[in-house]
Amino acid sequence: MAYSFPEEVLEHVFSFIQDDKDRNAVSLVCKSWYEIERWCRRRIFVGNCYAVSPRIVMRRFPELRSVSLKGKPHFADFNLVPEGWGGYVYPWISAMAEAYPWLEELRLKRMVVTDEALELISRSFKNFSVLVLSSCEGFTTDGLAAIAANCRNLRVLELWECEVDDRSGNWLSHFPESCTSLVSLSFPCLDGEVSFSALERLVSRCTNLRTLRLNNSVPLDKLPNLLRRAPQLVDLGTGAYTAELRPELYSKLGDAFAGCKGLKSLSGFWEAVPSYLPATYSICAGIRSLNLSYATIQSPDLVKLIRQCPNLQRLWVLDYIEDCGLNALATTCKDLQELRVFPSDPFGVEANVSLTEQGLVSVSEGCPKLQSVLYFCRQMSNAALFTIARNRPNLTRFRLCIIEPRAPDYLTLQPLDAGFGAIVENCKDLQRLSLSGLLTDRVFEYIGTHAKKLEMLSIAFAGDSDLGLHHVLSGCNSLRKLEIRDCPFGDQALLANASKLETMRSLWMSSCSVSFEACKLLGQKMPSLNVEVIDERGSPESRPESLPIDKLYIYRTIAGPRCDMPSFVWNMGERSALRFS
Amino acid sequence: MEGALGLLGGGGGGGGGGGSSGGSTDGSMSTVSKAEVVEQDYVGLMSEVSSYPAEAELELGLGLSLGGAVKSNHCPWREYGRILTAKDFPSVVSRGSSASSSSSSGRANTSVTAITGTKRAADSVAQEVGPANGASQVVGWPPIRAYRINSLASQAKASTVEEEDSTAIGNGRSKDSARKNINGTSNKNNGNVQENGRLRSSLFVKVNMDGLQIGRKVDLNAHVCYETLAQTLEEMFHRPTTTVNAIRSSGENEHAVKPSKLLDGSSEFVLTYEDKEGDWMLVGDVPWGMFLNTVKRLRIMRTSEANGLAPRYPEKDQRQRIKPI
């Protein structure tokens, strides 16, 4: 039974389907739909740049306009992935320069981006308009200057937590006077100074600018001028939010904020001085998102600010907010959906603030829409977790970090298995979970039994035996990303669930008990996986094979072993076996 | 919202593991069959490998009982656990808090044994080994991005007095103490009162070597003196690419500090660093703690290019050395 719609009609219908999963489903219907779909797909997301090769992508999708790539494993954020592991974007750029001259958007996360790559981008794509780099490294402000200078239609330039070598070459001044297209400019992670006059002129002429996030080299007294030139701003990241107390600066600031009636998001606030916070009050009623996680302000001042923001949906804050501040949050911000509390003194042995599990419990009670939690604290109890789970069955992201590894329930000294068990049992839509505290294999039994929608799980210092890992791999049907460190998981569960790994994006295991032998076996038996052993102590061949390897990264791929592995990474596949002879 | 390319499931491939959606029965059935294949091969492999302890008998019954009958009394796990003994963990860094003796949290230790009977062999082993060189480290814990840690640290430095280096020289923690005063108002963490500091901040700096395109990173807070740092760097950059003995093979004493060629001028390369003012200096001339406070990054430079750096003593013996404590 053949469809008799002409291709153009189908293509038109498909153009309304933007979601990746839906697009993938469409492509599976039949061969002709596959063909039509692949010619009209405009955007792709590649969750692991080594799962596929540029050539394969370009062969299938010849007309892309928007590409998103992710490189290193998540634990690279915490320095667990040695420098030089990989994630180089240049090969992709150089391939795309040929295949996609009409490329408009590039979003990269955890990739190594060089100045050469940035220069190539700036020269190769005439309509290039969106560059977002998150947690990337390897480039300098010279590369940014090339982007600024050569991308005539640049609308978005965002740098999130990148490591950039600041050459202080006034990259910002490289935006030509003719550039008026910027909608979003964000560079909070840059260290160096920018030319204020260039910045002001740029902001003035880009009348569509909605997002402006400065770095902390921009002093507070420059902020009013910038705000006055951009009253249409929706998202503002201040620079340094500190200055001596000067009434005329304060009132200028207050007026400037008042002029930005559309502001919905505030961030920055480096070195924030409490006395200047009230300058923002006039627009706080409209604020949906507040990132105070770099502001070392104490609880009373935080509370005063938060009380001004009844429509807050997202709050990122340091633990200076303390339990009392979180109580206030719970009372005031009934629309809160996301809360992240970061530690102000993560390496201190004793608590420096009065933030406990109570704060989180209060928020879970008072904020009915709370879905996403990231919470660092120093004590937790099963009772608190039960309460949170009961209060908030709508949680979708729950990341709890009890700072002391293997800390038990501080009231009963029991493991926290039951508490986390309650979380996964009650929160049926939980997609992301990070565990901490004292945990036995039992918690994994709960997770395997209940966490059917769980897509990403992070485990550290937990479990007793391979059984724990086995529960997770065999029970979590939706699991895509699993990252484990310092757990006594070894060969058995891994080998017994080898085929599960093909259904996941990736598995990371470091400081566990997986032997080199098992890695080799896995690599040989599972050609659709790249089994990478990472060991900076030298080749695993130089030690007995039954010894645990240092780090293991397994990911599914159709591109085979990669060619850019450094000397401390070994691929365990068949073709790589020759390396060991 | 994120989707794979669908390449794995599309175009006729059925996907190996039964996919992530669909009935769990389907998933586990195909997993079972695959697991059986894998295990039998695994068993076969085991008996051939001579290095494997002969007395260990692993029952790989796992894959066959995915129905959930695998309870924690299952013997294979314990046997497996026993195989890994202390000598199997020669250079594994201590598992964080298990070696802790800090006053406020004896709870971690008591609870380890208070839990189920299942022995956490790997962990108890780690306790025996313990931190080898005193600088116990749990890299990447708590899981906070380096960017955030650095940002807090630089705000802290802006508002506190730095600790005197000489008191911190034994454990190279002056930067750590500075970071501990991030809480601007309270000084209760002042002074080096912390004990074994299981959790301590990392200080990763980039290291580039002349002639190598790919740079590396090294955690300076994992070291207490120049010698161990130089050793680590030599291993990182001069390690032979063939499978000759790894330097830290089983059981060898890491305390053996041999004079480093990078530091004494006998190698073709010298170790240099860029300080806060952007000047390139030879590593080793200032006290370790002071070095930690000013170093921005390292470079292993060709000796021929190192002229014009901070002046060296003409005689090697006259060079000041920091002795490890």
UniProtKB/TrEMBL annotation, chain A:
It comes from the Eukaryota. One of its GO terms (cellular component) is SCF ubiquitin ligase complex. InterPro entries: COI1_F-box, F-box-like_dom_sf, F-box_dom, Leu-rich_rpt, Leu-rich_rpt_Cys-con_subtyp, LRR_dom_sf, Transp_inhibit. GO terms for molecular function: auxin binding. It is found in: Nucleus. The keyword Nuclease does not apply. Pathway: Protein modification; protein ubiquitination. Residues 5-46 form the F-box domain. Pfam families: F-box_5, LRR_6, Transp_inhibit. Transmembrane segments: none annotated. GO terms for biological process: auxin-activated signaling pathway; pollen maturation; SCF-dependent proteasomal ubiquitin-dependent protein catabolic process. The keyword Nucleus applies. PANTHER family: F-BOX/TPR REPEAT PROTEIN POF3, PROTEIN TRANSPORT INHIBITOR RESPONSE 1. This is Protein TRANSPORT INHIBITOR RESPONSE 1-like. The lineage of its organism: Eukaryota, Viridiplantae, Streptophyta, Embryophyta, Tracheophyta.
From TrEMBL, chain B:
Keywords: Auxin signaling pathway, Nucleus, Repressor, Transcription, Transcription regulation. The keyword Repressor applies. GO terms for biological process: auxin-activated signaling pathway; regulation of DNA-templated transcription. Its main location: nucleus. One of its GO terms (cellular component) is nucleus. It is found in: Nucleus. Residues 180-192 have a biased composition (Low complexity). Residues 202-305 form the PB1 domain. Residues 8-32, 156-195 are annotated as: Disordered. Residues 8-25 have a biased composition (Gly residues). InterPro entries: AUX/IAA_dom, AUX_IAA, PB1-like. Homodimers and heterodimers. Aux/IAA proteins are short-lived transcriptional factors that function as repressors of early auxin response genes at low auxin concentrations. Belongs to the Aux/IAA family. PANTHER family: AUXIN-RESPONSIVE PROTEIN IAA11, AUXIN-RESPONSIVE PROTEIN IAA17. This is Auxin-responsive protein. It comes from Nelumbo nucifera. The lineage of its organism: Eukaryota, Viridiplantae, Streptophyta, Embryophyta, Tracheophyta. The gene is LOC104600977.
